[in-house]
Amino acid sequence: MALGLLRHASELYAKSSLSFHLRFLGHDISLLSALLAIFVASRVLKLLNGLRAVSSLPGYRVPFQPLAPPGALIPTSWWNPGLYAHWKWKDTLYKDFQNENFSVVPFLLGAPSIYTSNIDVMRQVVSGGEQKTSFQKSPAASRVLIKWGQNLVGAWETGMWRKHRRVMGPAFNNKLHEMVWAETLNTYRQMETVEGWHGKDVVEIPVMQKLTTKLALLIIAKCGFGFTVDCSAPPTGPDGSMTVQEALRVLTDSYIVGLMCPDWVRYLPGFGRIREAFKAFSTFMRKEIEARTAEVRNEEQSAEERMDAFTMLVRANEQETGKLRLSEQEVIGNVFILLFAGHETTANTICATLALLALHQDIQNEVVEQIVTVVGYDRDPAYSDYSDLDKVLSAFYEGLRLFPAAHIMIREAAEDTVLHLPNPVGQEGTTPLPIQKGTQVIVDMVGIQYNPRYFDDPETFRPSRWYGESNESEAFSAFSLGPRACIGRKFATTEAVVFLTMLLREWRVEPLLKEGESRRGWRERVLGSPILGLATAVGEAPVRFVRRKQGGA
Ligand code: HEM
């Protein structure tokens, strides 16, 4: 009897516990379903709002904004355009939508955006500078650029930009460009000695990119900052502290950590050298600013003689007062940003140009013919030869067109506004496209440079399309256009023209093929999948230099 009661009691318990669990699970399921329904509804709402923001311009409807994490970290694939879509899909991207503009509306994370490959649309969004416009640089994207201090590149408000441009503008003058010419020439001569080219008829360069990066770093250090980088100097000084050369090298090698990652990353184990480089470089810059300000104030001879951008920036800043004067931190911010804006862009483009010239011997010969006609063999090229060497410049422009170093520019609508989209080729006028505040406009520089509206046969390396075009011509858009266009354009082209002139006069540049590799294979290996980092970079570009005979190829 007692046993029966016990069994009955335990059955009752089991049943009630089961029904309790089932009820609880039922609650859980309905709670989860409710949460899921709310989430789905909120994402559908986000998608609808995003479509409204871009007036339903056809395009991609994807989980994430492609240029911000996590979209930017996930490889480009059919469901995630990511960082590479504008290069990987450049042949079809705009054809698919039969439009030079398309939208990307994310339903999970990120702002809606419009990609454009049209120069008139680019002009509408990038021209904010002197005048107030409805578009500005995206403050979120610019924050990574101002880690060292507010600066010209990062400034997103008109007033802030104007203040920095007033002081930076005078630094980019003819004297600076003459200095760039002279220093690049010297550096080429040193390179001949250091790399052991003297007396050789053939030299193999396994990684051309390394040479051009070294060149651009030396030039920006000398002409941008006014100091000489001795590549063979030891990494530490007599007191054991990191030398400024080493700090510069570490910082340029690890710019991703320096610019892209939050500050605390530098304090993680394993990042000690980067931390030390930040400290060494900041201390050095503070001391330098103090010293150069004193030189300028006391009108010392040394200040008069210095022509580098840093000294000229300090000099221009000394003439400003009140709110227009840059703080010490802002001076550092501007000097430091020159390193990133001016070094990799130029290095990568010179490398791409040489790779293209290596593949196109006929064009290389045409360029060399002009070099020999203008400069001859008996003297070094002079700064006054610059405009006569337009075929050299055109080769560089064409290298930059095919591999635009600044591959995207991001702008944001600061208010509800209207974009005027030019009608397809053959139809006059524009079509208005209302867009909402917060919408991003991504200027796709790859799309622009490969747009058949502007360039026939856009895939072809044809420097002759630029022959006779003036250096300031707006036909060339890869340095951007309008008041916020690249302040370093002449700096970069001066460096490129003199370096290419010196190198090509002396050497025929050819692809360095692997055993059994065809030129087509080399082309694919070197130029087929560039890296779109801070600046577009082709592959390592292995080349062979073959010494030219005077008067012949
Ligand atoms: C091939 C080389 C270069 C290319 C393709 C290039 C391209 C560009 C582009 C497209 C912009 C506009 C960015 C935007 O508005 O979002 C820009 C701005 C800028 N660049 Fe360059 N650049 C090059 C070399 C240089 C050099 C050598 C320097 C300095 C030494 C430099 C300094 C700057 C600065 C300071 C700005 C900001 C200008 C402003 O906002 O007023 N760049 N560059």
From TrEMBL:
TM annotation in the entry: none
A Pfam short name: p450
Keywords for the protein's UniProt record, in alphabetical order: Heme, Iron, Metal-binding, Monooxygenase, Oxidoreductase
Cofactor: heme
Binding of heme, residues: 486
MF (Gene Ontology): heme binding; iron ion binding; monooxygenase activity; oxidoreductase activity, acting on paired donors, with incorporation or reduction of molecular oxygen
PANTHER family: BIFUNCTIONAL ALBAFLAVENONE MONOOXYGENASE_TERPENE SYNTHASE (PTHR24291:SF50), CYTOCHROME P450 FAMILY 4 (PTHR24291)
Family: Belongs to the cytochrome P450 family.
Protein name: Cytochrome P450
